[in-house]
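Minutes, project check-in

Agenda point 3 was the complex the collaborators sent over. CS summarized: two entities, 644 residues total, and the question is how they sit relative to each other. Sequences were read into the notes so everyone works from the same version.
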Amino acid sequence: MKLKRELCVRMLSKMYEIRIFEETVDDLFARGLVHGTMHLSIGQEASAVGSVFALRDEDYILSTHRGHGHCIAKGADINLMMAEFLGKETGYCRGRGGSMHIADIEGRNLGANGVVGGGIPLAVGVGLSLKMRQTDEIVMGFFGDGAANQGAFHEALNMAAIWTLPVVYVCENNQYGMSMSTNRAFKIERIAQRADGYGMVGVTVDGNDVLEVYEAAAKAVDRARSGGGPTLLECVTYRWKGHSKSDQERYRTKDEIEAWKRRDPIKLFRERLLTEGVITDQEAAGFEEQASRTIAEAVEFAKSSAEPDPDTILEGVYA
Amino acid sequence: MKEMTYAEAVREALREEMIRDDSVFLIGEDVGTYGGAFGVSYGLVDEFGEDRVRDTPISEAGIMGAATGAALMGMRPVAEIMFMDFTTIAMDQLVNQAAKLRFMFGGKAKVPLVLRTPGGSGTGAAAHHSQSLEAWFVHVPGLKVVMPSTPYDAKGLLVASIRDDNPVIFVEHKLLYKTKGPVPEEEYTIPLGTADVKRTGRDLTIVATSIMVPRVLAAAETLAGQGIDAEVVDPRTLKPLDEETIFKSVIKTGRVLIAHEACKTGGAGAEIAARIVESDAFNYLDAPIVRLAGLDIPVPYNRNLERRMVPQVEDIVAAARELVG
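CS then shared the predicted structure for the full assembly.
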């Protein structure tokens, strides 16, 4: 694959934004500034960026509880995301949703989801309406390895297949559904094998190689857009952090985590771009610094934003 | 006015809304050629095609998810779940997704969908095809719950439900499908949240929903012959609930009997009773509120047991006589 500099620069920059955003909110949580919990996708940035970058701006995504990466990759305003984390009125959901429910309707991100697998059937409805309206837009529905064992997965993938819907399902296999490893939760080698059961194409890629993800996603997107129906794309990756803030990490070893950290998707991509002469080391450092500034500004925006007015608590239940 | 059945009134509402608005479509099990398990959508697939009268696999969660996703995109899906009992299978999509997405997204999305589903017993179908689960949905912020008792109400309320920008649970009753009544020739809607006084009276108020409405009206005729003049209030929508019409009637009569088919414990009657007690109407009560409801058991198969489980005309007469005493 001949690397296009402009695309690679944008992808690397987004991966830095995601990484630094999550490291920052992790720190804000530790300092007591974030209420509740969060599910970090540090280590999975290539999966989010490689997939979403295969879409056009007018395409849709449905995300998951571990969805910060999808949201940023889709072009979210970091200020509004950070404000949502801090529960502020200026946040994407006016402080009503928090980390697990961020949606950017204008940016065509139809939302993260607090229920594992909850978004998989929604993608059927989005795909169905796009098809009924004869647009050439598509929807990308994310979920994790855990969600692939939900009943909704079966119902939805079958419906997407029989109706040849413009859907790309991206299964981010990060090896664990909370503490349950994929080795214990599946009798099959690859989750993408399940695509056979629905008569759709199933592909498994190295989810830590952003270019491999991008190429596979681009093929799936083309298939969906050209009337070829849905694809199940499995990105094999790893979450470096615990499931959520309650995780005591009793189910995996430090050695395992360290082994995956040596395959850091950002480091791998940066090194490849340097090796192939696409960017210089100085440029790469510049992208990282720019991402840090963006996130720091977002923290300031969020901190200085107003809390929701308690008198508005009943708003938004009904249209 | 023209005479038609409850099922025909529902079908006419669907048809007219599909003609008026091409974002309206039907989705559910066997809704196409088969016409739905009770024939309600029969013939619509011939007029509108398989895209807009969409048969699905037996996948209730998938149906509700598809409807919710399409509604998020601005479509107006009317989903059918073949029996109300099967809404249990679609509960995540209904309760966690459809009902809550708007609020969770800070009011920046809409979910304009209707879930049509037949509830109630009386068909000998036993405990998996006979339940009245409306109270569950009344409990969920973000949902609206509609329960029509006549062809007129069924059509007018369904049109209003389809045009509503929120998820609406539209509970039809299997035993009402073949009942007939007058329906206007011209277009009309009944705003959600408006009760209807089906009979005026002065001695007691009977609040009744769905199949209980015709039973209560029959009981009221018997009671009239015995010198008891019952007022019958049909809330028509349980959420939003037209409290004012109920309170007004209670203030007038001073006695309240609430009748519903669903199990008594945690049923919608408990909520209605509580609203009355919390209001000024409480000061006008001359006797404790009486609830007549389904027994707290799964719906039995045996004809006599099934009948015994749910309030019948004679039960309503007896309860009213005792209340007026």
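Noted in discussion: The mean pLDDT of chain A is 97.
Follow-up: revisit at the next meeting once the mutant set is ready.
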